[in-house]
Amino acid sequence: MPNETTPKGYWVAHVDVNDMERYQAYIKAARPVLEEYEAKFLIRGGEREVREGAFKARTVVLEFKDFETAKACYDSVAYQNAKAFRDLVSTGDMHIIEGYGG
Predict the structure, then answer these.
(1) Any residues with CB less than 8 A from the CB of 11 and at least 6 apart, and which?
(2) Cα 37 from Cα 24, distance rounded (Å)
């Protein structure tokens, strides 16, 4: 069980959506899975300025109680089923990262 010193886990995604209307099917299917794993959106689109390098059109950061939970959510059958909708209409990069426990 995580304690106060256990680093959080994060999903960091940079995504280009080719069909936002069809992307809504992914959002609808992913929502209950993310709620089950108690994911918290920290960044979900929004205004930004690229200062170095190149990014996709959309950035999303989700916070989980720990790294293991972040991985378990992504690997779950329910999330993979939701992800199938996303894969049809978007391209991107997604990383699961352990937070700094400093």
Answers:
(1) 39, 60, 61, 62, 64, 70, 73, 74, 94, 95, 96, 97
(2) 20
Average pLDDT over residues 19-42: 97
CATH number at residue 61: 3.30.70.100
**Average confidence (pLDDT) over 33-55:** 92
CA dihedral 52, 55, 37, 7 (to 10 degrees): -20
- Judge if pTM exceeds 0.85: yes
Range of the domain at 94: 9-98
